[in-house]
Amino acid sequence: MTSVSRALSFNAAAAQYAANRPSYPPVLFSTIEEITGRPLAGARVVDVGAGTGIATTLLREQGADVIAVEPGDGMAAEFRRALPDVAIVRGDGNALPLADLSCDLITYAQAWHWTDTSRSVPEALRVLRPGGALALWWNTGAEGVPWADAQDERVAHWCGVAPHDRARPDAVRAGRLAGLSDLPYARRLLRWSRIVPLDTHLANITSHSAFLVLDEARTQEFLKEERALLSEVFPDGMVEETYVVDLLVVTKP
User: Fold this and answer.
1) Does residue 219 fall inside a structural domain?
2) pTM for the whole thing?
3) What's the CATH number where 86 sits?
């Protein structure tokens, strides 16, 4: 299964994605302001790979003037339903449909890894104003949560993918900095959690690309087994998901 196929798989599950994916903690945005040395309020921000608008919504709440960029039909349709008054343009980070030197901040929430950095890095630098910043972040599973580690192993086995590396080794950072390491950057790891019903937790898991490209019957079989296992761990039906936001902020000279 190609990375393009996996990226496009989200379009068919846009509503599921919007309803069940985790958001981001307020400390993420205050940390971006701390690193960049400027407030988000009044900043011209481009949210690339905006998806259903999870990050766009939060950026607007900080007072940012946001333009969304999204390549997928399904995701863009869900975005427009949620945020009808926000400008969204069709495109991706490899060829931003934006003018040179036109924004203060470019954000990628869970989306940078879908780009070709040989193209997306120069595109970001083209669009950013001098002193502007590129903020990349991912919700990653927190290290040292036994039930979640065990679940990762089950998901990996079920879907035929590598399990998540919750230790976030330097190799992960190096991969995310491909093409960017010669520029000034800062990295922060921000731990947070949410408590959700078991159904929401399971819908969140199966909104990931590894499941979206899987046969539906196999996904349903996984859900049946996983529900039984987690009902023993969380007998009240509420699951505490613990995350670490892995944030990278790169500054344009």
Assistant:
1) no
2) 0.85
3) 3.40.50.150
Contact 140, 190 (CB under 8 A): no
Cα 117 from Cα 124, distance rounded (Å)? 10
Which residues in the chain belong to E strands, given as ranges?
Answer: 44-48, 65-70, 88-90, 103-109, 128-141, 185-197, 238-251
pLDDT in tens, 112-164: 988 999 999 999 999 999 999 999 999 998 988 999 999 999 998 888 777 66
Boundaries of domain holding 35 = 3-143+165-194+240-251
Q: How far apart are CA 117 and CA 9, in angstroms?
A: 21
Please state the domain count of the chain: 1
Instruction: Report the half-sphere exposure of 15 (CA within 13 A, side-chain side).
Output: 1
What would the pLDDT profile of 204-224 be if each residue is shown by its tens digit? 988 877 787 778 888 899 999
Residues 6+ apart with CB under 8 A from 110: 49, 51, 137, 138, 139
Asked, for residue 247, whether it belongs to a domain, the answer is yes
